[in-house]
Write a structure and sequence with these properties.
The protein is an alpha+beta fold. The protein has 19 helices and 33 strands. Helix 1 crosses helix 2, helix 3 crosses helix 4 and helix 13 crosses helix 14. The two termini are about 55 Å apart.
Length: about 750
């Protein structure tokens, strides 16, 4: 049979490697049936000629008995051919995960495990590129290794960096340390940039025998250190656009503010019912509102009203295409980069006080314990009576007087009932804390503080969770034999037993107990652990590791439930102004409510993956802006002393986090000159070899700011002394009205 296969390989142009790759895909998972489209996707094939060749190869291999057609057009590897075919497997495709050290891994679906790529074998690939890899012969006891032989698809071609000019050419040195090569800029492609300018460069080609890729400068951002330049640099680094496309802006400008009377008459009218918004004090994009009516029988009608973006943004329009590409709004320290143009996000769609607005609503009749008596979903028109900031609502909850206090207290009591019921069912209580900055008129940080989630935030969160859950259940929980239509879910997988066990061992060494014997035990035990560490030195580290132990929530058409919330069905419905998946959900829900047939799953699943990827990228950009501002804040405090907590230990030294602002820096091992210290990795501490002094995770210490490298966003500390655990503060001493940040809490999970 192998001879026959080889004969096929020699009869067609360049088929040796081609058939090898085809057979490798089927041999990696012999029981998974694939059609030619799925196989082509894994091979990175896009052109028609190669697809036609693939189809002919599949049927030839079927005729030879190597493949078995289990359904029309779907093939698996014949079980008796697995040993033979495995010998041919030499090439795989996957995504390159390149570390700053130069070493890399290729993440692939073809092997069931990642492939190690040494620094010398990454070729011309960058982090995130789709690559073809040659697999080296497996050595006993060694990990699978390979070499990048071809870049199939670039994850990005646009970079930001510092320009260095020569007489007839120049180079751009990328900001990203993971890009380990400078870009060559030929004469005439420099856009008159000067040495030292921060620029955006588009990579155009990488000639085969050139050490450097060739590029063209597309934008000169300005001098490093300028706030606007640095924020724009972060956006470019994470491959976000700096402005909307002209056709998108043009379409947005043509959208009228006025609502047609015919549209108003087609909707349920909530304009005369008490309705409010609760958001950050500096928010402009209000995508959710709450209404409340006390009914004659003592039950409560609570409406969760969500901006009807789908009315204005039509599928396939320039607005829709760019919203999909962006995927989400981005909240940097000093600005918001909206998913939709400002006219829509801050005006037309935004649920502003005193203005009539179109909504897609979920309306619930709740009893005194917040149990659902009945529910209604549909298009509405509302008029917000009052815009509240979280701080105003919180003050009323704590006893102060204010507008509509009685209604707010009713909503808070119902939200508390919903929350308590959720915890009883196994929801895990991860409390979010935000790093916030006081900024001057130039965007320079003058102070840093931590903003904690309070009752006012939870009030909104719990009603949004209710709405998201019930929409997902409405579509997904079909009874009997009826198949649920294709839908967009927010899914969260259970953590792996290995990660849970590792985490349990970790906290046990710090004196805490985590029960992992059952799903219910995990949730209750983890909630108790988070309560126990609150306010202690190790809180930040333990809660951080706990979150990393959990799987990452993503979007998918394949529902597996939401582990962290303990919801069998969950979606994102409540933020279509700033999240594209919510817009997808609005459209699908409306169509299904009006009898539409199920959409094509194969079309929507890639859209879900793209949305998940953009969400991750936006979070990374937001963290980068925070890290930059923390470094910038400490730049004016070099030589000053601060109280800190040990947030990590490594062979490089001690990581310390300043109390009150969470600026993290490194006390390098060679700076600890009173002894020779070694890492006790198992017990999360370093120990002095001569005197036996230990520094352990969570210990209170005093540090001095030694150096701040703005280019690398790195902070170095000197150790001054070991101190006493601080008493955690629960109050903010500065007035929050000074805040210029436009970030908002992550209130909808």
């Amino acid at each position: 049979m192998l001879v026959q296969i080889l004969s096929i390989m020699t009869t067609k142009k360049s088929q040796g490697g081609f058939i090898t790759n085809v057979l490798a895909i089927f041999s990696n998972n012999p029981f998974k049936a694939r059609n030619y489209k799925q196989t082509a996707s894994l091979l990175g094939i896009k052109d028609k000629a190669s697809k036609d060749l693939l189809i002919s190869v599949l049927y030839e291999l079927k005729q030879q008995g190597t493949l078995k057609e289990v359904k029309p057009g779907k093939f698996i590897l014949s079980p008796d051919k697995v040993p033979e075919v495995s010998a041919f497997k030499k090439y795989i495709t996957g995504i390159l995960d390149l570390k700053q050290t130069g070493k890399a891994w290729v993440i692939t679906e073809e092997l069931g495990h990642d492939v190690y790529i040494s620094q010398n074998n990454t070729g011309k690939a960058f982090d995130g590129d789709k690559v073809k890899v040659y697999i080296f012969p497996k050595r006993s006891g060694r990990k699978t290794e390979g070499q990048v032989i071809e870049v199939l698809e670039r994850s990005r071609t646009r970079f930001v960096g510092i320009y260095k000019a020569s007489k007839d050419y120049g180079f751009v040195i990328p900001d990203n340390p993971g890009i380990n090569v400078d870009l060559f800029i030929p004469a005439g492609n420099d856009l008159s940039a000067q040495t030292g300018d921060k620029v955006v460069v588009e990579m155009e080609e990488w000639p085969e025998h050139s050490r450097n890729p060739f590029g063209r400068i597309t934008e000169v951002l300005g001098k490093p250190g300028n706030n606007n330049v640095e924020m724009q640099s972060i956006l470019v680094e994470y491959n976000f656009p700096l402005s909307f496309k002209p056709e998108t802006e043009k379409e947005a400008e043509l959208i009228p503010f006025e609502i047609p009377e015919t549209e108003i008459k087609s909707r349920r009218d909530f304009r005369d019912i008490f309705t409010i918004t609760i958001d950050p004090a500096d928010a402009k994009d209000f995508d959710d509102a709450l209404s409340l009516r006390v009914l004659p029988d003592g039950t409560y009608e609570v409406g969760v009203h969500i901006a009807d973006v789908s009315y204005y943004v039509k599928p396939g329009s320039p607005l829709d295409k760019e919203a999909f590409e962006r995927g989400t709004s981005i909240y940097l320290v000093d600005r918001t980069i909206p998913m939709l143009p400002e006219k829509l996000s801050n005006h037309v769609c935004s649920l502003r006080q005193g203005e009539e607005k179109l909504c897609f609503s979920t309306v619930f009749i709740l009893d005194d314990k917040a149990h659902i008596v009945s529910e209604w979903f549909g298009k509405t028109i509302i008029k917000s009576d009052r815009r509240f900031a979280y701080e105003e609502v919180q003050e009323m909850i704590e006893g102060a007087d204010g507008d509509y206090k009685q209604n707010i207290l009713i909503l808070n009591r119902l939200a508390t009932c919903l929350r308590n019921e959720r915890y009883k069912r196994g929801s895990i209580n991860f409390e979010s804390q935000e790093v916030k900055f006081y900024l001057d008129e130039n965007g320079k940080p003058t102070g840093v503080y931590i903003k904690e989630q309070k009752e006012a935030h939870r009030l909104i969160e719990d009603f949004m969770l209710l709405s998201n859950r019930r929409v997902a259940e409405f579509i997904g929980s079909k009874k009997g034999k009826e198949k649920s239509p294709t839908f967009v879910y927010r899914i969260h997988d259970a953590p792996s037993p290995e990660k849970l066990n590792t985490f349990a061992q970790f906290v046990s060494k710090l004196g805490y107990n985590l029960k992992i014997s059952s799903r219910k035990n995990i949730a209750s035990s983890l909630n108790k652990l988070l309560d126990d560490v609150a306010g202690k030195g190790e809180e930040r580290m333990i809660s951080g590791i706990a979150i990393r132990t959990m799987a990452k929530a993503v979007y998918s058409t394949h529902n597996i439930g939401h582990y962290g919330l303990s919801f069998p069905f969950y979606t994102h419905f409540t933020s279509p102004i700033r999240r594209y998946p919510d817009l997808m959900v609005h459209r699908l829900l409306f169509d299904y409510m009006h009898g539409a047939a199920s959409v094509d799953e194969e079309m929507f699943e890639p859209m879900c993956k793209h949305s998940s990827d953009m969400e991750k990228r936006a979070m990374e950009a937001e963290r980068a802006s925070i890290k930059y501002k923390q470094a910038e804040f400490l730049l004016d405090h070099v030589g000053e002393e601060f109280d800190a907590l040990i947030s990590g230990v490594s062979k490089w030294g001690i990581y310390a986090e300043l109390i009150g602002n969470r600026c993290e820096g490194l006390i390098r091992m060679n700076a600890l000159d009173d002894d020779f210290y070694y890492l006790d990795e198992d017990n999360y501490q370093i120990i002095g070899q001569r005197w036996g002094r230990t520094y352990r995770l969570g210990d209170a210490i005093k540090v001095k700011v030694r150096n701040v490298d703005m280019q690398k966003k790195q902070i170095d500390f000197d150790l001054i002394s070991q101190g006493q655990p601080p008493v955690p503060s629960t109050t903010n001493t500065k007035k929050e009205r000074k805040i210029k940040s436009s970030g908002r809490p992550q209130r909808h999970r």
